[in-house]
């Protein structure tokens, strides 16, 4: 896709319903996200965030109905291999049983193929190695290049996971619950690196139920509840105690420290 051909929108959903089994879990989702935008999808467990991620990444498909629209970069259909060049997804786990015995560099290169390791049948081009090193540098993780993934801490593994998503130099990164399983020090380091990526121009779409995950660079907040978009607007309007208390069905008090919000 040439630069001139790319629309201003990364994602456009209109009238989207998604079913799992006999139950509809997403209801009438209307959502547009611009290229390069920094946004967070915030909501309690079970509100439909994971299903919305799967819809965005074409892992599942909505119910086909009149007027329903799903477009990614202006297109309704994608080859998923090609889509990875524009949209990097960082899930909570590295793929495959071979990952623990793969070095950080090889696990990063394997991101070109969505593989767990560099299998013998894969053709590794010099440019792929260069881009993998570039991604590790952006994550400040070159020291992990020769270390086995199975010997890394949870925070170090998360850096490798993000580096895998960066090898294609995507415009947008989708991060699903990035702080899960990380201790406080690892969370702090991860957020610092993500802030650097945001400042370098990479769009950040963060999915979480933790206020403290929300980077200061994120200005747009999309609140989800019961499979629906509950609110959508600027962080200053929505990240307030009364609105979050209603969202989470529990008392929420907020304090701010160094641009980050915390619930008490």
Descriptive account of the structure:
With 264 residues, the protein is α/β, with parallel strands linked by helices. The chain contains eight helices and eleven strands. It has a six-stranded mixed beta sheet, sandwiched between helices. Strands 2-1-4 form a three-stranded antiparallel beta sheet, covered by helices on one side. A two-stranded antiparallel sheet has the order 10-11.
Beta content = 25-35%
Shape annotation: globular
Number of helices: 8
List low-pLDDT spans: none
Biggest β-sheet description: 6 strands, mixed
Mean pLDDT level: 90
Query: Helical percent range?
Result: 25-40%
The N- and C-terminal alpha carbons lie at a distance of: 46 Å
- Please identify the oligomeric state: single chain
Main structural class: alpha/beta
Return the string of H and E elements.
Answer: EEEHEHEHHHEHEEEHHEE
Q: How much is the radius of gyration in Å?
A: 19 Å
What spatial order of strands do you see in the largest sheet? 5-6-7-3-8-9
- The count of β-strands is 11
Helix/strand layout:
Layout: E1 9-20, E2 23-34, E3 38-42, H1 49-56, E4 69-72, H2 80-83, E5 87-90, H3 104-109, H4 126-138, H5 154-166, E6 172-176, H6 184-199, E7 203-208, E8 220-225, E9 228-234, H7 235-238, H8 241-248, E10 254-257, E11 260-263
Parallel strand pairs: 3-7, 3-8, 5-6, 6-7
Antiparallel strand pairs: 1-2, 1-4, 8-9, 10-11
């Amino acid at each position: 896709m040439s630069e001139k051909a790319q629309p201003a929108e990364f994602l456009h959903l209109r009238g989207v319903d998604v079913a799992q089994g006999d139950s509809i879990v997403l209801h009438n989702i209307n959502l547009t996200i611009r290229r390069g935008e920094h946004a967070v999808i915030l909501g309690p467990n079970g509100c439909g965030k994971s299903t919305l991620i799967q819809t965005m990444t074409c892992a599942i498909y909505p119910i086909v109905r009149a007027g329903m629209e799903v477009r990614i970069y202006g297109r309704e259909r994608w080859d998923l291999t090609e889509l990875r060049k524009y949209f990097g997804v960082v899930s909570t786990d590295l793929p495959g049983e071979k990952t623990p015995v793969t070095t950080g560099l090889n696990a990063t290169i394997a991101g070109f193929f969505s593989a767990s390791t560099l299998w013998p049948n894969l053709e590794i081009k010099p440019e792929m190695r260069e881009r993998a090193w570039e991604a590790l540098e952006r994550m400040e993780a070159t020291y992990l290049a020769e270390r086995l993934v199975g010997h890394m801490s949870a925070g170090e593994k998360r850096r490798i996971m993000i580096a895998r998503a960066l090898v294609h130099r995507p415009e947008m990164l989708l991060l699903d619950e990035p702080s899960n399983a990380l201790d406080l020090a690892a969370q702090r380091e991860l957020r610092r690196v993500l802030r650097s990526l945001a400042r370098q121009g990479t769009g950040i779409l963060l999915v979480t139920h933790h206020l403290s995950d929300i980077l200061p660079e994120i200005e747009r907040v999309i609140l989800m509840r019961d499979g629906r978009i509950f609110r959508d607007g600027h962080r200053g309007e929505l990240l307030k105690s009364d609105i979050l208390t209603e969202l989470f069905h529990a008392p929420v008090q907020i304090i701010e420290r160094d641009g980050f919000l915390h619930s008490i």
